[in-house]
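SEVERITY: medium
COMPONENT: batch folding queue
REPORTER: lab tech (J.R.)

DESCRIPTION
The queue accepted two submissions in a row. Attaching both inputs and their returned structure tokens so the on-call engineer can compare them side by side.

ATTACHMENT 1
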Amino acid sequence: MPKKVRAILEMTSPARIPLEQDIPVINSLDQPSEIKVTLTKGNHGDYFKLPNLQGATQFKAKKGLNNIKLVFYPDWIGESDAKLVLLNKDTNEHFEYDIKGVGEEPLAEEEIIVECKVREAKKVPIKFRLPEGAMRDFEVTFDLPNASGPEKFSVPYGSEKDYPLVITPAMGGEFTGSVTFTSQDGVYYWYMVTYRS
């Protein structure tokens, strides 16, 4: 009787941080087996990839343990789902994975530490980079004391552009806060900044 196994796989990662998971494939035969691979993508299913298959829909599994690498790479916050089916054509073994992905709030793009002097303006360029695509416009907000800079900032995709942050400490001490770039669709990038004066 053909063997059929079902499992649920849950993956959680901050937005824009890839998470890898090995999916085991065991070939109990003495010779290589042909494995058919079907990845059906549901809600935000493009966040799931099988990079070591390079687009192939089948592969030869050697005797013993083989692994398929599954990558969850959420572009943004939210839930994703997909279904992965592996069929051993030689033994008719059928493995089905219901995959759930959760993209959590993004981590800071960078942590910046700055040495300043009291009441002296310090320029702190933030290197901001976007992947390939068109221009994107951002609103810039601060919760960093005594920080200033343009409230609007535009960056072409696929390029790096410096945001001209200026810090002017009013008193001595160490202060930490963030600079956040938010696009019209709510996607944001943020930087943690600490300055000492």
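ATTACHMENT 2
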Amino acid sequence: MNITNVDSELLGKTRQNMRFAYYTNMILIILYVILSIGCSDTVSDSLNYKKPDILFIYTDDQAIYSIEHIEDVMPSLFEAVINEAEEYTNYICSSPYCAPSRASLLSGKFPHNHKHYNNSKKYSDFYQIFKDKSLGILMQQAGYHTIFAGKYFNPGFPNDVSRTHIPEGWDEFLGMKGGKYLGTPWILKQEGRIINRRSPDDEHRSFIEVKYLEEKIDDFKKLNIDKPLFVYYAPFEPHHPQRGESKNKWFPEEYNAKFKKLRLSDHNNTKLDHSQHRYRLRALNHLDDNLKRLFKKFKEYGIYEGSYILFTSDNGFKLNHYGISDKRSSYEEDINLPFYIKHPNSKNKSHKNDKLIGTIDLLPTFLDLAHFEYSGCNGVSIFSSSDRKYILSEMINEGQFKDENWWALRGRDDKIVKYQSGKIEHYNIKSIPEEQLELDYKSIKDKLLILDYLITCESMCIY
């Protein structure tokens, strides 16, 4: 991975500053290890701390603009989570692409450290490195009963390892294989056996997934297992449907008739894809009907009030914003995502939090809630005292795309993007659409040093 310096003369003059920044960060890292990674005092100081039940919902390609009409599009989610939650407005994905983002979630590391840069990489390569230190197994070690349903990884899962592969760490597991809503193959654990099945062409995957979660929560309660519950649900919605699905019957007619008048907000671009936006809203509306059953199950067993419920997505998506319909860019529509946390008994309800957080912080956050010590992450718990000034998002295209690799330093007010060629862009993210600023190397030289530090950082990457 070749990273070209922006201005060798400029950076050469600031070597002393770099050394100072490096050693300063080493001191900060030690302090953060002491204060944050142990996780034993960031959520509760009580010696009789009771580990909470946790529900984590991780959608696919859900951009920040999707929440504009969320009360109408996802009323069940709005009532059970969003209306009861703390909203984080600066949640930044580690990479705006499916595989590297999910790998960052499972490992707590940036793509340049977990090495699963894009969908061209083998799932088995990631699995061999992280099979004994990823999300599920760490939560089991923390004392949780773990249940997973949905999209676990990307192309290659599970056959890169074996046809009957179930990743370690999950007491109950249903993993969908491939990227379709209808007729999707899946693999699950059932009474000690590994079963491969293909869903019917008229049964959407989220219906199957939530039905499975309902059954496994029932089993967990009936067996009176003396453990807290960690449920990770990764639905496919609102990901774009396969061509055949959209031409045939992507969703039942009652969904296809909805939201006909909803449009994307003005973006100084009259060619935004409003039609695709409505497709995605209908997908989320269909998902919401299934989530309603899941929330009802939590309430039925009396675990809703005392649980943490976290809701976010793997990355965003542009619908001809800036003339592009895709992800993988450093624009806010791709990297800044919806993020909500419902605390037990709706503590911090309706509070907006501008703390800079990201994908690399999710694993430390779950382990913090579990009061479990683990020092293998690049991020820290969202509930820690850490208040970073900048966070990194990166897209490494090597092996799959010919586009340039890029690295973005995201602050609260601005963003600097560095490309592999050495090109630099500076953005004001407070404007809509975001405004590219005239480049002034003198004013941003310190930020460039911070960016260079983060894109090579291997341990705790906080600045």
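NOTES FROM REPORTER
Residues 50-384 form a domain with the Alkaline Phosphatase, subunit A fold (CATH 3.40.720.10).
No errors were logged for either attachment.
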